[in-house]
Task: inverse folding
């Protein structure tokens, strides 16, 4: 089978995407497929039309590749592709939209407020920030609405840290959200088809748990897979993750990030196309379920070609 | 763009990192990698004006001269130029190095010199020779970003001493040394780029140079003087290197031809007292046996022509013009709250913005405008420092690009300043002088916009 591996692009997560793509290409070749690597640039459509692949493996993260843009093109060209469709990608990429969908779908997610940059620049929204402490409490988390990894995500320990955190978050998107900080264990549930893979727990090793960058550095965060959970906890976490996956309309595969608080799980976000690098969580979870990386890639391809078979 | 199937297969299994993770040495855990690195990876797009690099301008090097010299090497010394060479480097290369150091008033004993693969290897070898895990190293704040990963990979505990316009605050260093004394600890060395420092662009004053050398003598403390830019002076009076002031007893000197000839030839050097040099030579033997003999031949030919000072003079003219262009552009496009250094030599300007601007985040925004710089945090071991500063390079791109690049960065900063002012409801200049957010609104019931309550939607 001829598989176009779409990777790179112009997003801030280009580096991770290139690593994900390279690894997928290796697996495809080991599986006996013909892998056609394509760094998504100005000639993407031309390349796809020249190559006419049987299926496209979308190994792109961040804006452009994970937000439905590339998926839309693939639909127009009639090329089947891996991972969630246009609408689901759009919902997952926009954290504010995703949180509304989750809440509407009865999936627990921490309280939040969202602001547009114009609200501050033109409508004096700063005057509304005073109510934050009462409604969300401190510390709170400030995030760009659209953006991957930890870029632009900041904690504000007090009111005085909010403006600076907002300036950072607005560097990545014109909409940001302020979210209640939920204390608890950090978990990630990868979903393949309609099936939840073993839960991964991210455990910061020493260091500051408010340092988001640290959790992406090898050696500063340890990952336990499967996470040590009671049967009850595991089923609560897994069903929250599957509900989130469904609420956002995901298909193929995705990863749900959540916090296990004292009163149960709270879904933070869903990554439509999570990393597939050698240190990424989805491949780790698959491995724990006895699914090798090659098998994982093969399953993802099958789901793209025969969605009903999922 | 695509790799051949054959080559790809050769790489295949090495990508499955997790199979090897258990074998990694402890020091790989402290080697730095971060989201910022991914961000820097996309600064390489061709449409991006990069003020992030540290590249000297090699475009004016006469191609004819280069061709003639390489031809002569091929005709006269092919066998030798393609062969291994001595670990210390060829005696002829060392003669050239002694000549370069002589231009700044230094008179090293040729026996104390080792040719290295760039100045970077010299720093690495010095650390390899002197640093055990947990040893204390002192350097400037900010320091050369390329030194940070070296100190980290040898697991040094790095203490950074603030700089002002006269370079490292030696008074602060004395305080730190006293503090270490009281803990019964001793730094292995003090690392400094005294002239036209990378990244700050500042130069250590003569008075501080004297004091630093005096401290080293009194305390039998080693100084590592890294001097890539000393000869690239556009203004002011030349200052004696630490090596010259000290005579070489307590100073290990690091030099390079990267900025005055070519970084591609990878020719640097270290000068150290004989007992230290002995260990450095052993270290280099283990690292790479010898520095490229081919490029050492090129260096010999190049210096034999006797025009190397003229080439530096030409570079100085180019860089002085570009520095002026950049300073002018900064005055025009950066907000009143920003400050920057105006170096008298070297390749870099260090700009500092209001405290509420994180230059890492600013870079993400600037990249959308196709312009890049180095966020200040790269120059600190403690990555929470330098967050509101940036390094700008003026040697690697032409005047037009410098102007346009600075204009774009200035625009991005102006947007942040304006937003912060809106967030704190102050005028931009006022907010910069006292960057305090407005006190919490007490009257939130009166002027709160009708936001939906979280969860109502």
Result:
């Amino acid at each position: 089978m001829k598989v176009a591996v779409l990777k790179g692009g112009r997003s801030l997560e280009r580096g991770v995407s290139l690593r994900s793509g390279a690894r997928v290409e290796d697996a495809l070749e080991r599986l006996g497929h013909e892998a056609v690597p394509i760094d998504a640039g100005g000639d993407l459509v031309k390349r796809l039309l020249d190559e006419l692949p049987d299926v496209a493996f979308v190994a792109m993260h961040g804006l452009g590749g994970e937000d439905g843009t590339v998926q839309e093109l693939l639909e127009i060209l009639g090329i089947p592709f891996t991972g969630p469709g246009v609408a689901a990608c759009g919902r997952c990429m926009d954290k504010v939209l995703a949180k509304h969908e989750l809440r509407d779908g009865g999936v627990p997610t921490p309280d939040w407020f969202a602001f547009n940059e114009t609200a501050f620049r033109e409508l004096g929204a700063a005057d509304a920030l005073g109510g934050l402490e009462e409604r969300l409490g401190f510390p709170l988390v400030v995030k760009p609405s659209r953006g991957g990894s930890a870029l632009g995500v900041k904690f504000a320990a007090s009111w005085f840290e909010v403006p600076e955190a907002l300036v950072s978050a607005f560097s990545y998107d014109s909409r940001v959200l302020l979210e209640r900080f939920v204390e608890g264990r950090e978990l990630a549930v990868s979903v393949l088809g309609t099936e939840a893979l073993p839960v991964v727990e991210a455990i910061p090793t020493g260091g500051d748990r408010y340092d988001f960058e640290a959790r992406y550095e090898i050696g500063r965060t340890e990952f336990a897979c499967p996470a040590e959970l009671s049967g009850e906890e595991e089923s609560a976490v897994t069903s929250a993750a599957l509900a989130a996956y469904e609420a956002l309309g995901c298909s193929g595969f995705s990863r749900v990030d959540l916090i296990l608080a004292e009163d149960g799980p709270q879904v933070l976000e869903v990554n439509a196309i999570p990393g597939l690098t050698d240190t990424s969580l989805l491949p780790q979870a698959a491995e724990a379920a006895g699914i090798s990386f090659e098998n994982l890639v093969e399953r993802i391809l099958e789901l793209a070609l025969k969605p009903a078979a999922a | 763009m695509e790799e051949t199937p054959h080559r790809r297969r050769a790489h295949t299994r090495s990508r499955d990192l997790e199979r090897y993770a258990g074998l990694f040495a402890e020091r790989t855990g402290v080697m730095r990698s971060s989201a910022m690195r991914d961000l820097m990876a996309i600064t390489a797009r061709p449409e991006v004006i990069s003020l992030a690099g540290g590249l000297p301008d090699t475009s004016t090097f006469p191609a004819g001269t280069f061709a003639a010299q390489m031809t002569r090497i091929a005709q006269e010394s092919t066998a030798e130029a393609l062969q291994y060479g001595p670990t210390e480097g060829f005696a002829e290369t060392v003669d050239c190095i002694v000549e370069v150091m002589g231009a700044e008033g230094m008179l090293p004993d040729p026996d104390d010199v080792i040719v290295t693969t760039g100045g970077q290897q010299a720093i690495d070898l010095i650390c390899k020779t002197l640093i055990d895990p947990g040893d204390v190293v002192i350097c400037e704040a900010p320091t050369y970003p390329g030194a940070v990963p070296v100190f980290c990979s040898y697991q040094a505990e790095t203490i950074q001493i603030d700089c002002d316009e006269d370079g490292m605050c030696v008074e602060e260093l004395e305080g730190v040394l006293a503090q270490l004394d009281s803990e019964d600890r001793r730094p292995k060395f003090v690392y400094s780029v005294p002239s036209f420092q990378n990244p700050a662009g500042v130069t250590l004053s003569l008075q501080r140079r004297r004091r630093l050398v005096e401290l080293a003598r009194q305390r039998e403390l080693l100084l590592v003087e890294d001097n890539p830019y000393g000869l690239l002076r556009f203004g002011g009076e030349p200052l004696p290197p630490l090596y010259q002031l000290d005579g070489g007893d307590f100073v290990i000197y690091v030099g390079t031809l990267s900025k005055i000839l070519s970084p591609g030839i990878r020719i640097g050097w270290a000068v150290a007292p004989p007992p230290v040099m002995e260990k450095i030579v052993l270290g280099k033997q283990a690292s790479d046996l010898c520095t490229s003999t081919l490029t050492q031949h090129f260096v010999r030919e190049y210096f034999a022509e006797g025009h190397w000072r003229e080439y530096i003079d030409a570079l100085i003219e180019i860089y002085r013009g570009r520095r002026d262009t950049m300073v002018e552009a900064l005055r025009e496009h950066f907000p009143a709250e920003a400050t920057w250094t105006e170096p008298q030599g070297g390749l870099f300007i260090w700009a500092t913005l209001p405290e509420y601007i994180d230059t890492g985040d600013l870079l993400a925004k600037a990249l959308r405008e196709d312009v890049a710089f180095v966020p200040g945090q790269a120059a600190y071991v403690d990555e929470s420092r330098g967050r509101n500063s940036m390094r700008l390079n003026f040697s690697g791109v032409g005047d037009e690009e410098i102007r346009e690049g600075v204009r774009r960065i200035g625009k991005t900063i102006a947007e942040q300043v304006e937003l912060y002012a809106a967030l704190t409801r102050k005028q931009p200049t006022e907010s910069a002088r006292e960057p305090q957010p407005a006190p919490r609104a007490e009257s939130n019931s009166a002027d709160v916009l009708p936001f939906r309550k979280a969860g109502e939607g």
